[in-house]
Specification:
about 800 residues, alpha/beta, Rossmann fold, six-stranded mixed beta sheet, six-stranded parallel beta sheet, binds adenosine-5'-triphosphate
Length: about 800
């Protein structure tokens, strides 16, 4: 770990030097906060001024002032997020022949003083890197690394790691103080929200964080290895380093459920990044927030790649050429398009290789034309009949016979006639109904609803694509959309597309106006240059500027715009708990990031979903064959060694090829097993709670100290009934309660000071992949673990007997 405690020399002397060091650091910290306040005041003043009113000739001035206001708002949000522990570190480089080494203060953001001299270095800057990478074995040019612990704005403690005593100034040799910052951080009570670890990032995590933007990086690691926290720091780092690309295209973090997203939502703002999109798979289809789940059997079917074939077959099934041809009564005539022609028209439309709703225009167009021609032919026959009678009796003069012969060689309808005839036919409701039945305009929701509602279609199309138990997908219309439905809706949206001809016409009209705005915006960039509020990195182009300020409602952040647009291409996507994603979910995620710049975070040993991954290659080789890189995190920062020893037995039984991570903590009591009826849970919960929070009762919302009861599905309701005051389920509010009852699935990614696992045998029996769920449940604990069973402790927990 590279942590070294300073030797205690003389307690009294050490106390004095400690106090002096704290005083010195306090001066620096106060300067940094004063600077933060000044920056805030400046942003607030800009915000108060607000955008100038007016129009017409004042447009340039309005754009300029609106930009300043937007930027001030963003800056204020950024400055607001970094108040806590703004400055957390200091590095001292070794003195050398040229004089004393440089000293840098490291913080959440970079700040400069009035003379533009840096007084705080952004943790992501290259100059800050030694703070994270120096070890006693490889200190580089560092003489010392110091952690500053603040309470509000006050320096309360310093932790030093001295790499080179000789390299420090004479005056500083004495003030070595402290305790290892990492372990102190790890021992703190949980608050229901993940904190950033910017002050204590470890070297293996630093490599993940600073790995290049391009390509797919897989971060594989056991429970508590800091995969999530490292991935979030990586998002902040990439935004800092590739601001120009990523601020425009956006960064998306995909997490397993809404509770988890709430759990991590403070991390990025705390690192000065407020514009990152967070979504579950159930939210990747704009306009929908699917939370319902499916049975394991249906989850497997809906998550499998064959579903892509089924959705495609369902679309093709809605493009019909009737076996007997098309016959419609229109104004007393029976118009006919024969079977062969119907088939040709359908195949011609399909041949366009465009989405269904776009091809439909061609299909309708060609069908109307066929009907119009058929009608003209019928009219002609009617008109010609009397003349033919006369002709047969030899009663037509030669000039008239010649005219008739010439007309026969000409097309029945010229271009204008044809257009008018088609328009007239399209006005006929029967024609519309008939053509809509053959090739309907469809939304993804309609397509899937109608597919699920028809056992016959499911059976027929299921047989076509090799899904034998497709009947399980049958369900009534208006059933709620489930999480596994979302990738299918997305798949359908790809195949159906939208007939956007009306939008395009509007767009063309708007383009002229926008060109004018861009011209103004370009002038603004040239005129304003790089002031404090409008820097070159914040505004990447005149196009973006015009986007932000055209008159379409209030300004939306990149994340907001991206989340509302199914076809948005993100600059980088981070997928957490990625082992849970099904093959179909991967297809959806990959569509959001055509450049394949991704961070995939997870643990194959924790796969709980029946449709989830059993190897990274299984999911990724399809998209980036041989082109993804893997980085492993091996140290467990969450769960103490005594708990990990028992969890490791579970892992060895359910996933013998996986190695549990090495715990860094060796504190806390060993885990316990209790044969206890569920009815007695309240007293156990009460005593555990008092141990982790210092007393009070269930139902309170302590600021610190969290307990989870993680139960099998079979015992879940009984546990809820026994603990009526506890929060229940994966609701975002559950994180604010000191006691929460969860299923294993809901507990994924979270952590608690004390965990009570109820009914381990049930959990093992229910776990679709084996016993991974039990391993997940046990490794949520940061301090205490109790296993509650009904005289049936499974053999793989025998160490607890
Ligand atoms: N460098 C670090 N400094 C301080 N705390 C850390 C560090 N790395 C990880 N932690 C803490 O360890 C705990 C586990 O981290 P995290 O949730 O990111 O792990 P994980 O690998 O995603 O776990 P799981 O797979 O079980 O969800 C968190 O409380 C996190 O803050």
């Amino acid at each position: 770990m590279g942590l070294r405690q300073a030797d205690a020399v003389n307690p009294e002397r050490e106390e004095k030097t400690r106090e002096a060091a704290v005083r010195t650091e306090q001066e620096q910290v106060s300067r940094v906060y004063a600077r933060l306040d000044a920056e805030r005041a400046k942003a607030e003043a800009a915000l108060r001024e607000g955008p100038a009113a007016g129009g017409g000739a004042a447009f340039q001035a309005r754009v300029e002032s609106a930009i300043a206001t937007d930027e001030a708002g963003r800056r204020l949000a950024q400055l607001g997020g970094v108040e806590h522990a703004l400055c957390f570190g200091r590095i001292d480089h070794r003195a050398d022949a040229d004089g004393p080494g440089d000293t840098f203060y490291i913080g959440r953001i970079g700040l400069r003083d009035e003379d533009h001299e840096p007084i705080l270095i952004d943790w992501r800057a290259t100059a800050a890197r030694p703070f994270y990478t120096a070890t006693p074995g490889a200190p580089g040019t560092l003489a010392r690394r110091r952690h500053l612990h603040l309470r509000h704005r006050e320096v309360v403690r310093l932790d030093d790691e001295v790499f080179d005593l000789e390299g420090l100034d004479e005056s500083e040799r004495g003030d070595i103080v402290g305790e290892a910052a990492l372990l102190a951080t790890l021992r703190r009570r949980r608050t229901g929200r993940m904190s950033d670890v910017v002050a204590t990032i470890q070297e293996e995590q630093d490599q993940v964080i600073r790995s290049g933007l391009q390509g797919v990086l897989v971060v594989q690691g056991g429970p508590g290895t800091g995969k999530t926290v490292a991935a979030l720091h990586r998002a902040a780092y990439l935004l800092y380093t590739h601001r120009d690309v990523l601020e425009r295209r956006g960064v998306l973090v995909v997490g397993p459920n809404a509770t988890f997203l709430r759990y991590i939502e403070q991390v990025l703002p705390g690192l000065g990044e407020t514009d990152v999109a967070l979504a579950t798979v159930g939210e990747l289809y704009p306009g929908l927030k699917a939370t319902a789940t499916e049975t394991p059997a249906v989850t497997v079917i809906k998550g499998g790649r064959r579903m892509a074939g089924l959705v495609e077959a369902a679309v093709l099934d809605r493009q019909r050429a009737p076996a007997g041809g098309l016959r419609i009564e229109v104004e007393g005539l029976t118009l006919v398009v024969d079977a062969e022609q119907c088939e040709q028209i359908r195949d011609r439309a399909r041949g366009m290789r465009l989405p269904h709703n776009v091809q439909r225009r061609r299909f309708v167009h060609d069908m109307l034309e066929a009907l119009a021609v058929n009608r003209a032919e019928q009219y002609e026959r009617i008109m010609d009949e009397p003349l033919e009678e006369i002709a047969k009796s030899g009663g037509l003069p030669d000039w008239l016979q010649e005219l008739i012969d010439e007309a026969e060689d000409e097309p029945l309808l010229d271009e204008t006639d044809l257009r008018l005839a088609k328009e007239a036919l399209w006005q006929d409701p029967d024609v519309q109904e008939a053509l809509n039945a053959l090739w309907p305009e469809l939304t993804p929701q309609q397509l899937l609803t109608e597919l699920y509602a028809s056992p016959e279609t499911l059976a027929r199309l299921g047989a076509q694509v090799g899904i034998s138990d497709c009947a399980l997908l049958h369900r009534r219309p208006r059933s709620p959309w489930t999480i596994p439905d979302v990738p299918l809706l997305d798949e359908a949206a790809e195949l159906l597309g939208r007939d956007d001809s009306a939008d395009k016409a509007r767009q063309r009209a708007a383009e002229a106006a926008r060109a004018e705005e861009e011209r103004y915006a370009q002038e603004v960039i040239e005129a304003v240059g790089t002031t404090n509020l409008l820097s070159a990195r914040d505004v990447t182009s005149a196009g973006e500027l015009a986007d932000r300020h055209h008159d379409d409602g209030p300004y939306r952040t990149t994340a907001q715009r991206a989340m509302a647009d199914r076809e948005w291409a993100y600059g980088h996507v981070i997928v957490d708990e990625a082992q849970e994603l099904s093959e179909m979910a991967w297809r959806t995620v990959m569509r959001r990031v055509p450049t394949r710049s991704m961070t995939v975070v997870g643990d194959i040993a924790q796969t709980g979903s029946a449709a989830g991954a059993s190897s990274w290659g299984q999911m990724l080789d399809h998209y980036v064959p041989g082109r993804w890189r893997e980085q492993r995190l091996l140290v467990n920062y969450r769960t103490p060694a005594a708990i990990m020893r028992v969890a490791a037995d579970v892992l060895a039984a359910v996933a013998p090829d996986q190695t549990p991570p090495e715990p860094v903590r060796d504190d806390g009591p060993p885990p316990a097993a209790l044969a206890l009826p569920v009815g007695e849970l309240p007293s156990l919960v009460g005593s555990e709670l008092s141990l982790i929070t210092g007393g009070e009762g269930i139902g309170g919302a302590f600021k610190e100290g969290r307990l989870a009861v993680i139960a099998s599905a079979a015992r879940h309701n009984a546990v809820l009934a026994a603990l009526p005051d506890a929060a229940a389920g994966a609701t975002p509010e559950a994180l604010d309660s000191s006691v929460v009852v969860l299923t294993c699935e809901e507990a994924k990614g979270l952590e608690f000071d004390s965990v009570i696992v109820v009914d381990p045998s049930g959990i093992l029996a229910e776990s679709p992949k084996g016993g991974q769920d039990l391993y997940v449940a046990m490794t949520r604990a940061t301090r205490r673990l109790t296993i509650v069973h009904a005289n049936d402790l499974p053999p793989l927990l025998s160490a607890l007997e």
